């Protein structure tokens, strides 16, 4: 009896071990089956994959408001005076397309891969992919529609505002609420912003650096959105938020001055702000306090009549300011003109000065030239 029991226990243990081996082997087989090994590949830049099944072209005329103006104050800006042309030129023809692709791989930064070729639509913003061959990657399948308009920095707040969200105004609600949305990084505000278009948390998929998504159906924008700010899409985006958050119900009244934290922080901000209070006591100046939540930011900026601060993502919130408002921007070492388009297309008075040594530093040494700041404010206030 004891001998039979030993044989029975041995048989049970053997069956369990064989089952485990079978499961492990099955997993390995499945993993190998779905892995993609690329021995070598071709790279094509500024182009899209050949798997296009449909193209929706937009050829739209846009006229910016007559009230928008552009002024330069102080030195270090002579080479950038040509930006004033965009404010005197009020009519634009904007061309862009929605592309519908099928059966295509998408990887980090929304780079496409098909038939041993990597397609990089916008090299300037999709330049952080440097594979070493042979390249072995995990593959995940996505059925249904995938929205692919991200890039290396598209999950940064400002790029979400002017690169990612405007194209969404072209898509019907039925597509937005049922598609998979690819992002490079999933910060809390990414979910907050996409939620404004009824894109749920479960629809948002972060692209890993070692994962390719094999997508049944893809929607993307051409040219790929990166600092390509279209007046038609920007105004449609603002109209969306005006309706969503019930903006523009009251006239703007706030006169707001702000500083950046850490990078590009103005070291003598306190002295500068004190001088503003002394020189212009007739205006209700205030320092911007930390704002929690996208809707709170939208409502606050909708009340701003005059905004002054160092260049950065805060200026993306000028999207919510009202026509004829004043934007005073301190440009840094790298001159970036994206918010000039906001001002021209939305009808703001944009005044700019430059601190040429103001870079991204762990310990800020940036000193604002207060006389030039005062001159910039005087110019801005002249539009009241």
From TrEMBL:
Question: Which keywords does this chain's UniProt record carry?
Answer: Membrane, Transmembrane, Transmembrane helix
Outline the extent of the Glycosyltransferase 61 catalytic domain. Answer: 157-328
Q: Which domain of life is it from?
A: Eukaryota
Which sequence ranges are marked TM in the entry? 7-25
Q: Which GO terms describe its molecular function?
A: glycosyltransferase activity
Q: Does the keyword Transmembrane helix apply?
A: yes
Q: Which Pfam families did the record assign? A: Glyco_transf_61
Q: Which protein are we looking at?
A: Glycosyltransferase 61 catalytic domain-containing protein
Which lineage is the organism of this entry classified under, starting from the top rank? Eukaryota, Metamonada, Parabasalia, Tritrichomonadida, Tritrichomonadidae
């Amino acid at each position: 009896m004891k001998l039979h029991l030993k044989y029975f226990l041995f048989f049970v243990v053997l069956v369990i071990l064989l089952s485990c081996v079978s499961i492990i082997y099955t997993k390995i087989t499945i993993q190998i089956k779905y892995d993609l090994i690329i021995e070598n590949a071709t790279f094509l830049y500024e182009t899209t994959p050949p798997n296009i099944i449909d193209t929706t072209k937009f050829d739209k005329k846009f006229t910016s408001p007559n009230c928008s103006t552009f002024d330069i104050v102080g030195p270090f800006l002579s080479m950038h005076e040509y930006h004033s042309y965009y404010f005197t030129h009020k009519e634009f023809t904007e061309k862009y397309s929605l592309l519908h692709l099928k059966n295509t791989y998408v990887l980090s930064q929304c780079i496409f891969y098909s038939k041993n070729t990597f397609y990089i639509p916008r090299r300037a913003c999709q330049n952080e992919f440097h594979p070493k061959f042979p390249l072995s990657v995990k593959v995940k399948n996505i059925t249904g529609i995938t929205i692919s308009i991200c890039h290396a920095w598209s999950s940064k707040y400002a790029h979400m505002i002017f690169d990612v969200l405007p194209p969404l105004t072209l898509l019907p609600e039925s597509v937005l609420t049922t598609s998979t949305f690819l992002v490079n990084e999933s910060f809390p505000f990414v979910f907050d912003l996409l939620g404004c278009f009824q894109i749920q948390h479960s629809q948002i998929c972060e692209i890993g650096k070692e994962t390719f998504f094999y997508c049944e159906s893809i929607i993307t924008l051409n040219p790929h959105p990166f600092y390509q700010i279209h007046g038609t899409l920007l105004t449609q985006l603002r109209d969306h938020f005006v309706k969503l958050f019930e903006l523009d119900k009251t006239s703007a009244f706030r006169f707001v001055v702000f500083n950046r934290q850490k990078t590009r922080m103005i070291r003598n901000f306190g002295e500068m702000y004190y001088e503003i209070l002394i020189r212009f006591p007739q205006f209700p100046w205030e320092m911007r306090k930390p704002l929690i939540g996208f809707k709170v930011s939208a409502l606050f900026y909708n009340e701003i009549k005059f905004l002054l601060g160092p260049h950065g993502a805060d200026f993306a919130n000028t999207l919510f300011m009202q026509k004829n408002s004043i934007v005073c921007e301190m440009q840094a070492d790298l001159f970036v003109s994206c918010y000039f388009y906001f001002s021209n297309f939305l009808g703001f008075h944009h005044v700019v000065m430059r601190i040429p040594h103001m870079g991204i530093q762990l310990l800020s040494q940036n000193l604002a030239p207060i006389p030039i700041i005062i001159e910039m404010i005087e110019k801005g206030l002249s539009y009241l």
